[in-house]
């Protein structure tokens, strides 16, 4: 078995030296355990937090221990009556090619014709549910709302915009980091307007893209984007604070929005959330999203890297915007 371990805690932007790939003897499965060959693993922004010594919402990775993250794999041996050989499973278990796991810690996935296993790490998985929960529960989206989403060309953001459009948004505006992403959002994904946040002050770009203001902001980025959204809100505007990736590599506390008094005068609500606390919405999510996919109403794109060796470059690229849609690493072909 080969696996990635954390070699050092980064100061600022992580580098390849913070990780090491090791080869280990694979233990035999005990009673209640299964052996899983990983097909595809996820790299996600929250993993940056797992590299730090401090407390984050996901358990930190220890130096010298296996790094773990979402992955989908095929059971190649089983000593559990609940999870048979051949089952497709989701586990918080890769960065590694093969894992011996407790059957109780995996979720058996349905085999959906025409749906690649990687979709369980994106549109049908944690990022998809995050988009759903943030938009519908936290931001209390309703038909007719004008919506702004940052990180719009990413896994979560591209779905937020599409869920909003499909549920009757009056306008969906997105921001992203390259002209190609902006083009993809407006020409293929169905955003009303989009802009590259490198093209000027975000507040000016947002005013130009949403001159009548916004009702809902889905924040993936924080910092200047959040301040701009507060400025652009109409009365009773609502934000779901999902992430703040512009500050994940910061070595000093990042400045807050300077226009917080607008929270009072415009009677805004800004609500942070962690998707894991909203598992009760998984039922409606799993009922409603697969049909949107199979009927072709959702545009889904992935950035796929090949092989366990490429997992670290994929993760470092994700933090720098090297992905459009969900970033995944394919570990084996079926
Ligand atoms: P993405 O697929 O959106 O990938 C991350 C993207 O962030 C990059 O593609 C890059 O795109 C963008 N980015 C990087 N640096 C900056 C910057 N300085 N300013 C603006 N954008 C930047 O990742 P996910 O969809 O998986 O996650 C999106 C956000 O949601 C993250 O903040 C993540 O932490 C959060 N999240 C929160 C969850 C929760 O439960 N609260 C659950 C899942 C995700 P670009 O080229 O546009 O810069």
Number of domains: 2
Rg from Cα: 20 Å
**Average pLDDT value?**
97
The distinct bound ligands, ions and cofactors come out as: NADPH dihydro-nicotinamide-adenine-dinucleotide phosphate
Distinct helical segment count: 9
Which stretches of 5+ consecutive residues score pLDDT under 50?
A: none
Main structural class: alpha/beta
Span of the ends, CA to CA: 18 Å
CATH-defined architecture of the largest domain: Alpha-Beta Complex
The CATH class of the largest domain is Alpha Beta
CATH homologous superfamily name of the largest domain?
Medium-chain alcohol dehydrogenases, catalytic domain
* Strand elements, count: 15
How much strand content do the residues show?
Answer: 25-35%
Order of helices and strands: EEEHEEEEHEHEHEHEHEHEHEHE
Can you describe what's shown?
This protein is of the alpha/beta class and 334 residues long. The chain folds into 2 domains: 2-122 and 301-330, Quinone Oxidoreductase, Chain A, domain 1 (Alpha-Beta Complex); 126-276, NAD(P)-binding Rossmann-like Domain (Rossmann fold, 3-Layer(aba) Sandwich). Helix content is 25%, strand content 26%. The chain contains 9 helices and 15 strands. It has helices at residues 46-50, 126-138, 155-166, 179-189, 202-209, 224-232, 261-265, 282-294, 311-319, and strands at residues 2-6, 19-23, 33-42, 69-78, 88-94, 98-102, 107-108, 146-149, 171-176, 193-196, 214-219, 233-241, 269-272, 302-306, 326-330. The strands form 3 sheets. Strands 3, 4, 5, 6, 7, 14 and 15 form a 7-stranded mixed β-sheet that branches. A 6-stranded parallel β-sheet has the order 10-9-8-11-12-13, with helices on both faces. A two-stranded antiparallel ribbon has the order 1-2. Helix 2 packs across helix 3 (155-166) and helix 5 runs parallel beside helix 6. The structure holds NADPH dihydro-nicotinamide-adenine-dinucleotide phosphate (NDP).
